[in-house]
Amino acid sequence: MPDLVRFGVSLDKELLDRFDELIQAEGYTNMSEAIRDLIRERLAKKEWECGNVVVGAIAIVYDHHYSNLLERLTEVQHKYKKVISSFHVHLTRDTCLEIIAVRDKSKNITQFAHQIKAIKGIKQCDVAMCSIGSSK
Ligand code: NI
Predict the structure, then answer these.
(1) Helix or strand or coil: residue 9?
(2) What is the 67 CA–ligand 1 centroid distance (Å)?
(3) Ligand 1 centre from 93 Cα, in Å?
(4) Left (φ > 0), alpha (ψ -120 to 50) or beta: where does 89 sit?
(5) pLDDT tens, position by position, for the chain (136 residues)?
(6) pTM score over 0.90
(7) Residues 6 or more apart from 99 whose CB is under 8 A from it?
(8) What is the CATH number of domain 13-49?
(9) Distance from C-alpha of 104 to C-alpha of 93, rounded to nearest angstrom
């Protein structure tokens, strides 16, 4: 268990009210947890911007009937070699969701995601950026 530190923050009331409304809508039950998550998100973003080794989850949606899409998707992943794991969900008769977990330097992950996005037939490709070092 890490050492806990308490600190005070000065905010204008309107900003605090808006933040409080936002975190309640998101399901937070206390302000500290919401602030911890904000700090972690900023730190993870900084790690990505600095080109550190990070982890990411690439979510893609596609129509599996699209010509050569599956072959191309497999080929791109084999070339990349930094895939930790992936899983596939058959969303509808035609549409698939695939989540690809990767661990690499952020710029390489971004480049890999761009390669996937460029494959014809990929309908959506989003990257969730995470930090290896963040603690809960
Ligand atoms: Ni499928």
Answers:
(1) coil
(2) 14
(3) 8
(4) beta
(5) 678 899 898 999 999 999 999 999 999 998 999 999 999 888 888 888 888 899 999 999 999 999 999 999 999 999 999 999 999 999 999 999 999 999 999 999 999 999 999 999 999 999 998 888 744 4
(6) no
(7) 57, 58, 59, 60, 86, 87
(8) 1.10.1220
(9) 33
Sketch the domain layout of the chain as residue ranges: 13-49, 52-130
**How far does residue 91's CA lie from ligand 1's centre (Å)?**
7
Distance 60 CA to ligand 1 centre (A): 11
Superfamily of domain 52-130 in the CATH hierarchy? ACT-like. Chain A, domain 2 (3.30.70.1150)
